UniProtKB/TrEMBL annotation:
PANTHER family: TRNA 2-(METHYLSULFANYL)-N(6)-ISOPENTENYLADENOSINE(37) HYDROXYLASE (PTHR42637:SF1), TRNA-(MS[2]IO[6]A)-HYDROXYLASE (PTHR42637). Gene3D superfamilies: 1.20.1260.10. It holds the Pfam family MiaE. InterPro entries: Ferritin-like, Ferritin-like_SF, tRNA-Hydrxlase_MiaE. CDD domains: MiaE (cd07910). This is tRNA-(Ms[2]io[6]A)-hydroxylase.
Amino acid sequence: MFRLKLPTDPRWANIAEGNLEEILTDHAWCEIKAASNAMMLINLLPEFTEITTELTSIAKEELDHFEQVHEIIKARGWVLGRERKDSYVNDLFKFMKPGNRKHLIVERMLFAAMIEARSCERFKVLSDNIQDEELAVFYRELMISEANHYTSFLQFAHELAEEGYDVKKRWEEWLEFEAKVIESYGKSETIHG
């Protein structure tokens, strides 16, 4: 899926299901961060009207996902915990190459696409492997939405790349790097953990 080089071991879903309150809290914060990322990108490129419009829709959708997760947390009698550190995302952030403004924006788009791709893949693993039917259906629906975000960010990278910037080649580098990073994850009840 998404040409990820290292798929998630389905047994990770059992770890996640062992502490649903934690996975839902972590997931809720991932949605807030995704909405914040879309808004930050708007701040970087307001002159690109069509991309800004799409990013606005993505930010709203991510906030809607947060609300949905929060409603599930409340319905189960739990309380949203404090923000969780996402070491996986921090590891990916270090892979971005410096450059001029346009180059940095394209790197941010690839960074966002990578996170969305892995999140979507994790949602699929959850939907296919957990016993909780409500959450299995919920994660199947979210998987589709996140796949759209992934493709949007990749499309934005292609649209914004300057001549000489090979987005396909750089995306392959991201995929290779992410495979090395994800090797040390998949052992905790967090979306990327």
